[in-house]
Amino acid sequence: MRWQLTLLCVLATATPASALTMSFDFGNNARLTNLPGWNDVFHASGSPTDTLFVVNDSNGNPVPGVTLVETDPFYIVGQPSQGGSESPSGAAAGFPVDATDDYYFGHTGAFGGGDDNPTGGFKLTGLNQSLAYDFTFFSSRTGVNDNRETAFSVTGANNGSGVTATSNNNSEVLPINGIMPDTNGEISIVVSAGANNDNGNGFYYINLMQVSAIPEPATGLLLALAGGFAAFGRRHR
């Protein structure tokens, strides 16, 4: 009985670790998301933000050591436009319009003075290798009549991928969960046209990304303690 009381005391006093969330708005420097906890990734014509050296969490506090580095440029000849969703709803309802309306985009073949740009990519560095990271992507281009499906691939020590219906999207988000950083503490993201994309230029988009670290070390500790206490109890019955 004593071990059961001990376990109850541990359960009562332990506090699960809260998730760390980082939010990124990709797009036009005329439409920044000037809200606490949002990180703006943008470029003026021909001048991409190669590295975001300070990344803030959802409370507006810098996350020590974490940076976002553009590794494969998107379209950079001119400013990205603001043709995304102005009415986020459904799973995207909680996102600010300043983040859903603008985007980074790329294309297959030459376009608008830019060379063939079949993929765009970036990576997060300085991540905690003991944590798993859940990703949520939102991709939207409104006012179109074709299929601009966008594919996302996320790679660290493991990998995940998925596609999202970008055309006229107001509500769909793409979750890719449980990605662990590699041995360098990095996770890479690649964006491209999906297999069903039938746009003549193969346009693909990223409007925003949210990244949540789900540590929950207290949960693991409690499970271990529970198992140990249960085994102890069985031996002493």
Automatic annotation (TrEMBL):
Cleavable signal peptide: 1-19
Domain Ice-binding protein C-terminal: 213-237
InterPro entries on file: Ice-binding_C
Pfam families from the UniProt entry: PEP-CTERM (PF07589)
Keywords of the record: Signal
Protein name per the record: Ice-binding protein C-terminal domain-containing protein
Source species: Bythopirellula goksoeyrii
Source lineage: Bacteria, Pseudomonadati, Planctomycetota, Planctomycetia, Pirellulales
